[in-house]
Design a protein that fits this description.
By secondary structure, this protein is an alpha+beta fold. The protein has six helices and six strands; from the N terminus they run ααααααββββββ. Helix 1 runs antiparallel to helix 2 and helix 2 packs antiparallel against helix 5. The longest helix has 24 residues, at 3-26.
């Protein structure tokens, strides 16, 4: 394998690791609504960087006017679908990844007649994904797991244990120590996700839920015996 393929593959793997580090560790699994699809998206670019893209060479690119128009129509339909999905769910990072890919692909590749077969194109797109994610975090400014924990502790709670919160009106879950936890969730929809905590205050056990996007405690419900 050429050095350029190895170098670009390592960069793409590093970008992928950073994205999922932010999702699972820093933001506790609330950043990416579809981590599986995001992983597939990144895997495609890693394969591209490693030379397994299978992209057509310029001389074999279809030249038929009908085929070109059909490909353009397909691209417009796909891009329009992604645009609609982004408008409907602006907190979905994967939609923004697809939007940026569509714009960058048109500007940098189709206009220049580049088929994107070179490994550096995958690195270029992965870096744009990181820039998109950075812009998303700056605009939405969700709180991290550690910030949510500090917020709950400042409210007077101790012995925090974080758990996964289900997205429904009322939920009940069993923690690893065999104790149950549950509460009634707010009626207002949370656009990004929730951080749930089992916590204690004045000797009582509570279910505390924090909004990741709004950055505030939404639920403080005492648990029964």
């Amino acid at each position: 394998m050429k050095k350029s393929y190895v170098f670009n593959t390592l960069i793409c793997c590093g970008c992928t690791a950073l994205i999922f580090l932010l999702h699972f560790i820093v933001y506790g699994g609330v950043l990416l609504k579809s981590p599986g699809y995001a992983g597939l998206f990144c895997a495609v670019w890693i394969a591209h960087a490693a030379g397994y893209s299978g992209t057509l060479e310029p001389e074999t690119r279809p030249q038929s006017a009908v085929r070109v128009r059909l490909l353009q129509l397909l691209y417009c339909i796909l891009f329009g679908s992604v645009l609609f999905a982004t408008i409907e769910d602006p907190y979905n990072v994967l939609c923004w990844f697809c939007m940026v890919y569509g714009v960058v692909y048109v500007i940098f590749f189709l206009r220049k007649g580049d088929n994107g077969a070179e490994p550096w194109t995958a690195t270029f797109m992965m870096l744009w994904m990181l820039l998109t994610l950075g812009a998303f975090l700056l605009i939405v400014h969700p709180i991290t797991v550690s910030q949510a924990e500090n917020m709950v502790e400042r409210a007077g709670y101790t012995d925090l244990y974080r758990f996964k919160v289900e997205f429904n009106g009322t939920f009940w879950d069993t923690l690893p120590d065999g104790t149950g936890i549950g509460c009634t969730m707010p009626e207002e929809k949370e656009p990004l996700g929730w951080y749930g905590f089992r916590a204690f205050k004045d000797g009582e056990r509570y279910c505390v839920v924090v909004s990741a996007a709004r950055g505030q405690i939404e639920v403080q419900e005492k648990q029964g015996e």
